[in-house]
Predict the structure.
Amino acid sequence: MNQKKSKFLISCMIFGYAFLYVPIFLLILYSFNYSPLLPVWGGFSTRWYSRLLESPEVWDATLLSLKIAFISATVATVFGTLAGLALARVGQFRGKTVFTGMISAPLVMPEVITGLSLLLFFITLWQLTGWPQQRGMFTITIAHITFAMAYVAVIIQSRLAGTNRALEEAAMDLGAKPLRVLTDITIPMLAPGMMAGWLLAFTLSLDDLIIASFVSGPGSTTLPMMIYSRIRLGLKPDINALATILIVSVAIGVFIAGWIMLRQQKQRALLANE
Amino acid sequence: MNVQASSDGESQVDYTHSPWLDPSATPFIQIKNINKQFGAFTAVNDVSLDIYKGELFALLGGSGCGKTTLLRMLAGFETPTSGSIIIDGVDMNGIPPYERPVNMMFQSYALFPHMSVHKNIAYGLKREGVAKAERTQRTNEILEMVELEEFAKRKPHQLSGGQRQRVALARALIKRPKVLLLDEPLAALDKRLREQTQFELMNIQEKLGITFVVVTHDQEEAMTLATRIAVMDKGDFEQIGTPAQIYENPRSRFIASFIGSANLLDCAVTKRDGDFYSVSQPGVDQPIVVEYDGELAVGANVTLAVRPEKIHVEKRSVANSSVAQGSNQLNGVVKEMAYLGRLSTYHIVTDSGVLIEVTSPNQSRYRDGNHPIDWDDEVTISFAPQSAVLLTE
Amino acid sequence: MAASDQLTGPWYARITGAIHRNLTSLIVGIPFFWLLLFFLVPFFIVLKLSFAESIIASPPFTSLLDWSKGGFPEIAINTENYLYLIEDDLYTKTFLNSLKIASICTIICLLIGYPMAYGIVRTQGTWRYIFLLLIILPFWTSFLLRVYAWMGILADQGTVNDILLYLGLIDKPIKLLYKPIAVYIGIVYTYLPFMILPLYANMEKLDSSLREAAMDLGANPVSTFFTVTLPMTLPGIIAGSLLVFIPATGEFVVPDLLGGGNVLMIGRLLSSEFNANHDWPVASAIAVVLLIVLVVPMMLYHKVQAAEASN
């Protein structure tokens, strides 16, 4: 490639990464602004952090969100793994087309539709059976399991497509019954994928605003719902502080995970060259 | 097969090394009219085969010929569309892979990446419910046999290709299966290691007396290893026999050209004299005499097959001296030659315009680098009537 | 597990036996049942409700199945909600505006994302990995907070106006927030990684010798790009574009926070019909129409993914 093209590519990349990251840096910067009038710089301060951490509302919402995210990610990983196995390992079965459609649809479905349909479902269910009497943590968890399991299923399916089927056949050949094959071979093989799926499901649940807003009830406010109700009316410096905490912890997590994966890759490359 | 004269004067035949010739022997594996369809595609087309105890049987064929599908049906990974498989008198129909008395060595070895060598090998015993002490002992024994004792704690990715192959073999043998299935057992090894491992495999098979069924696409490997070979093409058996039978008496044009190489000439029978047939190519006067023990009518179309190494080649100037009496003789010119070290290959165009491939061992050392037979040399080629075969298929 | 197998009682054996026999049905059945109940059935309820009549009550709609007339349910189909969507040009306008915004944002994402993905693929070693992580990172951070970041930048006293005032290019703040431009920026910003990742995945698999072969045969860099690279990356372009276009069409948060009600988008309209006007049947009808509009790109995406998977 000639030099001109490279310069063009480099400037595109600089622009692109600046576009992605400058807003985040500004967001973090303003969290240390003394002035309550957000865009106006009034000197360095950490007072928004202390105000944030003193607010019981924030703690309640965070705790609720974490609880929902933990439960829904765990259940979604189990169901999503089963769904991925069904897609990649079970041959033809009745309704496979419907099943495949139901797995891939939530990935691209506008959240307003998912939220609306689940709310109407819960109301109908309540009319018919008297349950669930109150919407809240339980209904949000169900909703999150439903859309997060689709993501897990896709991850598991692609992992399975890339793995050697002969491993499972070898175990069977050596006398392992199907359930044994699953627990001895398939699940250990899928462990990294399930871990990635769990983390993704956890994050998706923690981030979701729209679906949770539809299916939640009075008294159950998740963290995104709380953030949304505050920033709708304008800029709030304590939200900048919250954003900083969340973004920095996620960034550290992603980079540690990335570093570990890179090291493993290099080790494997080294072994392969031996 | 050894024919021995016994004391009472009747000749007794020892079938130890060729049980398939013994009329009283019962086959160990019976494949009866097996058919396998994948949708509209026929992978295995109504084949039958008997394999005897202690045999090292090779299924040989190109990719997509159905050999692997047949092996997988023996292992239980595929269900035949029709027909039955009987192993040691038990019909395998409906018996899942984990309950069959067979084990398989996979082409990719399929070693469990998250288990150590020891755990990989002991896995089959563990599933069988063998107690821990016995498990360890048997695993150590087999590790010793494949000379991998010091690698027991390693993970598969820390082993070389040859070591992985031996772990896979040990893992498949530890349950002492009635039949060991090997899917391209040597394909992943480099050439030198492959040749060495072939003999190791044969030694182990002889020592344990387990019946081996090997799938391979490599005809040399099949010929080295196997007691008998079934050559497959398009889901069918083309020919079943010992390596020598298949090489020397190919049943069809396909076999003659698939196993080794052969000059194939379309001919018609012109004359018969007992077992000696004269055949000639259309438009070519000079007949070729071939000994053939079948019945052919004069005028019948046949294919003459003669292997390149069975043809003798000499420079015209020195010819006529060493050519045996009764041999077929043809004159021609060398169009191409390739010096391969231990032998040379020549492409010779005969006076009647037919291209014949001849290989000839380089018995003397050509120190000046000049080949005794070279491009554009006029040569005489000859072969005995017994060296060629006539094919009707 | 020989020891534990011997220790287990018959009840345990019976349960594991049942699991063994029905393993496949369990693997398929559990997720199938869940999705049927919580994904497919809810859709039929939306569909049903879109044909119901709006009433002032709780819940604010009539039941489609009327059991009052003897044993046979009578289905009261009411197409009024759909007619209402057609008659009131607010809805048509909003739909068209959503599609326009989503299309323009998709094109902008492609224009920014394509050279970025190409640049990442052309980078070697650890840096390539870091660049990729920086694209993935936004996936894991809150979408809401990243939109919020732009509220500070685009506000009247925000960063952009500050810079422009400082440079003397303007003498009083220009209005950016709660204008269409803010919505465009917000959508491009949130969905750019969705464009880059499929493009990267596609370009990574691209054999660099193809490009070299084209150059060897006399193509210059520009014609190499248009005759080899661009056609080969088409699956990535389609996948990325659909991943931006589909969710952008139904977007709610960005028009709500950055558009402030001045920019009409269908996701926001649906939400306000539902939450503010309590017109559930009309909201359901909007959802059904939105789904019908998006079903073609969704199926296209599904097809592209299946084709990629089978490669």
Observations:
- The mean pLDDT of chain A is 87.
- Residues 237-273 of chain A form the longest helix (37 residues).
